Amino acid sequence: MSTVHDREEPNAYVAGDAVPNELNERFARVRGAIGALERSLLDGEREYSRRDLEEDFNVDRQLSTDYWRGLGFSNVAFDTTVFTEDDAEAIADLAALVNDGTLSDDAFVTIVRGLGFHMGRLAMWLTEALVDDAKQRHGMSDTEARMRMLESVPQFVEIFEHQAIHVFRRQMSAYTARAGAEILRTSTSEWDDDSLPLPRAVGFADLVQFTRLAQSIDGIELAEVIRDFENLTRDVISDGGGRVVKTVGDEVMFLADTPEDGVRIALSISENIKRQPSLPNVRVGLAWGNMFSRYGDVFGPKVNLAARLEGIAEPGAVVIDGETADLVDRAFPGGFTRVAEWTEELHGIGETAIVRVERAAASLIERHS
């Protein structure tokens, strides 16, 4: 059987017609960049196994397994040397909170999974931003841009790390402030259901016919559509006092603290997107009610209702349920107009009063640059 080294045709090696010497140079360059990155980022040699963590750092073997898996890495054998000094200390610091009873095992796993998921997503987000920047500003191919990213990451590590810590503290401050306000509010509220403790407006906004669009344009154009959609919706939601829960390609899920703020955000997303010729129409569904929060997400019957409402909305429309519409009318008289009302059997929910709303001019949230 022939091998790569037996073949004479240059284009048989890799895409881009790289010849063997070029391949060797490329591989050496990549290996060198990755090695430099590991030394810079991990700041030490891999010198500890899970056995070492148990014997020298008092980390239960199940906790070391849970930690490593929680970060999103595959499990390692008990005696395999994989952890650096920093790894060992980080795992031991969190495990100590379980050992002294400050945290339960379940809380340990939840915290680690949250850190692993969001830090992994952040690492991908930041590195892809560097790749995209190299393509846009320097006209590089994807391979060239990724090579540039690998070689340039060390110069960004310190500032990225500082930004991550700073933003974490800012976000933690904002979230705990909201939690404090929630305690004060519920102290005087008649609602007392620990299973659904959070009253919120929850909305879903979804680009219309995104699948068809994705099949008709190339990857670069598709990435630009997703970027424009996400940037616009995040700006409008933040400016309206709401919060993005998550984005999944062509859909964004958001929260607001009052029904009127939720409807205002929903309508402003639709209005702003209509102004963008590069984006297809959006449909938005929104509902107000109580829910609970876990794992950075929210759950409850009203979340399901909002998702169903989004699914039946016409392109460019915002639909809410009748109860939410009544609350908005009382809280913000004249702010919104009911342009259509009907009842519909929603799967898994039942017969629901549905209202399509439009905004009064004064209720638009302008997107600020």
Based on the model shown, name its key terms.
369 residues; alpha+beta; Alpha-Beta Plaits; 8-stranded mixed beta sheet; 8 strands
Description:
The chain has 369 residues and is of the alpha+beta class. It has a domain at 193-363: Nucleotide cyclase, GGDEF domain (Alpha-Beta Plaits, 2-Layer Sandwich). Helix content is 55%, strand content 17%. The protein has helices spanning 20-42, 50-57, 61-70, 85-99, 105-138, 142-187, 210-216, 219-239, 259-274, 301-312, 322-331, and strands at residues 198-207, 243-248, 251-256, 282-294, 297-299, 318-321, 336-346, 350-359. Strands 1, 2, 3, 4, 5, 6, 7 and 8 form an eight-stranded mixed β-sheet that branches. Strand 4 (282-294) and strand 5 form a beta hairpin. Helix 1 (20-42) packs parallel to helix 6 (142-187) and helix 3 packs parallel to helix 5 (105-138). The longest helix has 46 residues, at 142-187.
Provide a compact summary of the structure.
This protein is α+β, with helices and mostly antiparallel strands and about 375 residues long. The protein has eleven helices and eight strands. Strand 4 (about 280-295) and strand 5 (about 295-300) form a beta hairpin.
What is the third-level CATH name, the topology of the domain at 193-363? Alpha-Beta Plaits
> In total, how many beta strands?
8
Percent helix, as a range, is: 40-55%
Helix/strand/pairing category? alpha+beta
Computed Rg: 26 Å
The profile of the biggest β sheet is: 8 strands, mixed
Mean pLDDT: 89
CATH class of the domain at 193-363: Alpha Beta
